[in-house]
Amino acid sequence: MAALGSKLAQLQSKACEATRFAAKHGCAYHKTLMEKNKHYVVDPPTIQKCQELSKQLFYTRLASLPARYESFWKELDSAKLLWKNRSSLKVEDAGVAALFGIELYAWSCLGEIVGRGFTLTGYHV
C-alpha cells in the first residue's frame, strides 16, 4: 500500500510541475501558435460560424465517401490481380509486401499499448 501512496505522490508532483510549466509558457505558446496559423481563423470566431464549419466538414467528408469506396474496390481488384499472378512476382515485390504487413502489425501493437495507457502488461497503478 505504501508503494501506491508513493506513486500517487509522484504523480501529483508531476501534475503540479506540468501545471506550473503550462502557466508560465502557455500564453506565449498560444500567441505564437495563433499568429503562425492566423490564415486559418475565420473572422469573427463565433459559435454559429464554428457550427457552420463543423457541418461543412462533416458533409464534405460524407460527400467524399463514394470516391473513397470506388478507390477501395480498385485497390482490392489490383491486389486480387497480383495474387492471381503471384508466380510472376519478383522477390523485391514480395519483400515490400512483407515489410508493409510488418508495419501494419507494429502499428496495431503500438495502438494496443497506447490504448492500455502505455503499459506493456495492461496492469497500471
UniProtKB/TrEMBL annotation:
<keyword id="KW-0472">Membrane</keyword>
<keyword id="KW-0496">Mitochondrion</keyword>
<keyword id="KW-0066">ATP synthesis</keyword>
<dbReference type="GO" id="GO:0031966">
    <property type="term" value="C:mitochondrial membrane"/>
</dbReference>
<keyword id="KW-0813">Transport</keyword>
<dbReference type="Pfam" id="PF04718">
    <property type="entry name" value="ATP-synt_G"/>
</dbReference>
<dbReference type="InterPro" id="IPR006808">
    <property type="entry name" value="ATP_synth_F0_gsu_mt"/>
</dbReference>
<keyword id="KW-0375">Hydrogen ion transport</keyword>
<keyword id="KW-0406">Ion transport</keyword>
<comment type="similarity">
    <text>Belongs to the ATPase g subunit family.</text>
</comment>
<dbReference type="GO" id="GO:0045259">
    <property type="term" value="C:proton-transporting ATP synthase complex"/>
</dbReference>
<dbReference type="GO" id="GO:0015078">
    <property type="term" value="F:proton transmembrane transporter activity"/>
</dbReference>
<protein>
    <submittedName>
        <fullName>Uncharacterized protein</fullName>
    </submittedName>
</protein>
<keyword id="KW-0138">CF(0)</keyword>
<dbReference type="GO" id="GO:0015986">
    <property type="term" value="P:proton motive force-driven ATP synthesis"/>
</dbReference>
